[in-house]
Every structure is written in C-alpha cells, then in structure tokens.
Amino acid sequence: MKPLFLLPILTCILSAAAQEAATSDPLASWNDGATKQAIVDFVERVTTKDSPDFVAPADRIAVFDNDGTLWSEQPMYVQLAFALDRIKAMAPDHPEWKTEQPFQAVLEGNFKAMAASGNEGLLKIIGATHAGMTNDQFAEIARDWFATAKHPKYDRPYTECVYQPMLELLAYLRANGFKTYIVSGGGIDLMRVFSEQVYGIPPEQVVGSSIELEYVEQDGVPTLIRKPQVAFIDDKAGKPVGIDRYIGRRPIAAFGNSDGDYEMLRYTTAGDGLRLGAIVHHTDDEREVAYDRDSHIGRLNKALDEAPERGFLLIDMKQDWRQVFPKK
C-alpha cells in the first residue's frame, strides 16, 4: 500500500504526464479515431524511408481548398463580404450607383435583386472593387479591411474564423517534409494578403482565380495595374489546370469540402503510389454550420456520393474535431 502522503505527488506527476502527452500530439484538436489515424498512417507511410510507399520530399505536395476547408465560408464567401463592403465604402464617389444594378441592390441590402443580376452582376461588382488600381494598392485596401471586418455570426475577425484542426494539419505536414499550397476558387491576391500570417503558406504557394494585369510605368516606376477582366478561374476543372500551371507537380494529398474540389481530388488521387484525397464534411450545426447537398455555398453532392468509391476520406466535423476554431 502506498503511503497516503505520496498520493498528491503521484497525482501531480500523472497530470503533468497527461498534459505533456496532449501537447506533444501535433493533431491535438482531432478526436482519436479512424479519420485521424488514416491521416497519421498516410504521413508515416510516405515519409518512412524503408516503406514501399516512401515519397521523396520534393514530391510531398499537399493542396488545400480555402473556403470551407481552411476557414468558414458561411453565410457568404469572405471575398464577397469584402466586395460588398468596398461598394458601400466607394458609394459616395459613385452617386450613379443609387439607381444602377447590381450596385443599387448592394447599397439597399437587397440580396434577391443582387442574385437576380447573376454572373454579369457579380463581375461588375468584382470589376469595381478589385480593379483600376495597382496590386500594391489592392493589397493595402485588403489588409485594412481584414484589420477591422468581423464575421457576422462569430463576431471575431475573419482571419480568426479558421479551423484549428486544419492549422494543426498544415503544420504537421510541413514538419514531415511536405510543401503545402492553397488551391482555391477565391481571388489569388486577396488570399496572398493573409495566407502566410494565418496559415504559414507564403504568397508564392497560393493558387487562385485572378484578373488581368497590365505592366505600366507610373512616373517612371514600373508597376502592375489590375484590369476589370477575368484572367483565370481556379475552380472545378480549373483547379488541376492551376496546379499544373503554378505548381508543376501532381500533389499526393488534397483537401477540399465541396463539389468545386471534386476534380482536384480526382486529379490528385489518380497519380501513382499512395495518395490521399479528403473532404471536410460540415456536419456540426452547433459549433459551425451543417450543410452539404442543398447548400447554395459549398455544395457537396457528387463528391459525397462518390467518396466511398473513390476512396476519399470523409472528415466529419462534428465527430472528428475536438475543437473547431482557435480559442479566443
């Protein structure tokens, strides 16, 4: 029988050991289970030198969608929130917008009329808010917006509405020799403003949709002017194109959350050797938002149906994540 005076000491030792074990887990915000184990097994198999599945560091490429995969995309895409706020900020210099659609709808908060303007209206909004300036000027505007804008549901900066388990996954992969990229339908220049600070992903490892640029010299200073024309849409079938164009290697791991990521998942998992394609399934209506097939944002239908056949790993947000957002 242990002397009673030793029990408090033993309890402290066990508590410290448990705390150390918890902090040493690189995926501490993931619940133990099949999903977490599948990720760990994949990483161990491709990074162990005597493993038949070993992959050289140069080929350890992992790609991540952004909206709905790395951060919240509900109730609207962050880039759309940015564009709508820009319209309101610019409105005093454009009195004609009071009677011109889709700007009138934005200023009046009439989302039905805004939606009725379709892609043409959206392109007008993007053209007005994202073009007609240098890249440096756009980056400064975006940084200023991110410094004050808050998510309407969580009342915290958008850059804090990122998924803690995915931040841990990014760090875990990089610690094991992976190079991590964002491959998103969002605007490349908006994401490059925050990607390194928030995700540890430098601007040159961001692949996204872009508008046309024109080289000019302003007062003898070389610069790039943003034009109101779309250059590339990095969504759906455009994602594998963007991967080849900007990365030049087929990834061995891809993470998405919607049918917009289906082609990227297929392209990644079709390569030789061990591959991992994973889908963040939004199943948690308490800590975040539950949505998939019927959502107008981040719809997950085809990829969900084909996940078992294609071998896509389904990450169940409610079941697999101990924590959703970083603690305040």
TrEMBL record:
Gene3D superfamilies (UniProt xref): HAD superfamily/HAD-like (3.40.50.1000)
GO terms, molecular function: hydrolase activity; metal ion binding
Keyword Membrane: no
Zinc among keywords: no
Keyword vocabulary terms for this entry: Hydrolase, Magnesium, Metal-binding, Signal
Signal peptide: 1-18
The name this protein goes by in its record: Haloacid dehalogenase-like hydrolase
